[in-house]
Predict the structure of Acyl-CoA dehydrogenase.
Amino acid sequence: MSIGITDEHEELAASLRKWAASLGALDAVRAAEAGPEARFDDVWAAIEEMGVASIAAPESAGGGGGSLLDQAVALEACAYELVPGGLLAAAVGSIVTGEPGRHGVQVHPGGVVWDGGTAGAATPIVGIDLSARHGAATAEAVALDERGRRTAITLAAAEASGVARWCLDTAVEYAKVREQFGKPIGSFQAIKHLCAEMLETAEAITAAAWDAASAADAGDDEQWGFAVDVALATCFSGAVDVAKACIQVLGGIGFTYEHDAHFYLRRAVSLRALVGSADDAAARLTAAAVTGVRRRVDVDLGGLDDAIRPDVRAVAERIAALPQAERRAALVECGYQTPHWPTPYGLAADPVTQVVIDQELGAAGVVRPDLVIAGWAVPTILAHGTDAQRERFVRPSLLGELTWCQLFSEPGSGSDLASLRTKATKVDGGWSLSGQKVWSSVAERADWAICLARTDADVPQHKGITYFLVDMRSAGIDVRPLREITGEALFNEVFLDDVFVPDDCVVAEPGDGWKLARTTLANERVAMASARLGKSVERAVELATAGLGPVESVKVGHAVALATVCGLLGVRTTLRAIGGHGPGAESSVAKLLGVRSRQTSSALVVELQGDAVAGVGSIERDTPGIAADVWEMLNTRCLSIAGGTTQILRNVAGERILGLPR
């Protein structure tokens, strides 16, 4: 997705990208390659006529009077087409010099400037970025201007997003058509994963660039500074990595001068060189986080909440006034436990209503109970079950009277669920299930299970599977705990030996199990997303309060940046839902980056405590201090395995989001 989320910004981006493509920008770059005297006069004349460089300049200074986010959307679109010249510098200049009392500004990080020549003298330079023309200029006692620096980084991040987007799109389109060994190379897992990783990085860049511009427009200097440092720590090395990966996917053709890919790599490298150090930004993020600064992102509902908020607030406050033991029933009764579910178990709430309910419950201090596995089981019953099944299972599950586990995975069928071997044989009044399931959380105490079993071995694998509801107290069920690397036994293996399941516990029709296992309610949950750092990153910041060396401080800052970006992806997903758009790539990428964030940050927390870790013997989840830190580090290893391995999720991202062949 591009920086713009709203319809207006998407239309602006599409229009400008079409306009930029018409300029023949790369032809101009190749024609101007000769030397520093070469110019992009025709392109620049078109830029001036369109007013692209002054979208955010004040109207009093001849600009468009738009927001910095408007300007960022425009620069991203132009960078996608590699529009040459000094567009970034002109845009920054039009903004900072157009402010009242401004006559000029230095935007490159620096300290004292020694007078070493004649002020105003300039020497043109051809740099690594052949689509730009830089110059070395002499100035007298120019002081660093923080607002100008932030503006430059914010808009440069937008360009980095455009570069990354072009590289991703180019690599993916090539991978779809380039054949080797009789198949498109995009069908090979190595290429598919490389493209999926490019998607992850590109989405992170876009989210950080969007947030830096949004924070500037919000007018809070502290928040803007934090967002700019997140962008600086994320966008520019990320764009270089995506450009390198693009050339790798292209192979030999990408290494030729004739292909355009190297121009984008050059632009990415140049941007990274000009904006300042990512590690310095990370160190500043650590320092800010230690003082309590966190990115606060307010979701603007545009007045759509005005009519409903007073009533929602009244209900939330009424629930908050109840004793803790009575709150769950009250949440279920009014539909606030699962507002996205259909009535009478929810409210069939639209995204705005869901967000308002989240906000008001949070403000009132009301925490919804976690439905755990019921959150997966019950939506399937709602969507595909009978009226009797809904009456029997839904409300008791919401109230916590019934708990669930999942019997899907088997010793030989983890990610490859369609190859499961548990058999269901038709008997009088129902089915007899036999087989072995594994990795079943809380199976030892669950009341019911959702279970997939093969009912027809004579049809293709995906068509012979049926979805059952299994009473875990049934005869023939043997639950055995599996001890994990933390020492605990959350998972179990479950043996089914001629377990009887009545016909009224089959969901939908026999053979529909595969379809049901892959579906959720169309009206999916819209959460009130935030940019919270998470448990391990907060713990790393806590350790930083005691003082860290410069290397460790940088590591903590990069963890803060990644965690913040993960939260921003969730915020963008929420905003897209509010705007009436379907889920974009952000939600899938957030899962992948979220796992990376939790695993790397928990490992960092352990690393920061040095040789003391070697002396940790017994580890417990709830023990304060280093023992709990070690437990968390070990426990997070399951995140890239459970619920679909990271590698499988990258396959899914490559195929379903990027459209690569299977």
Remarks:
- The longest strand covers residues 491-502.
- The radius of gyration is 28 Å.
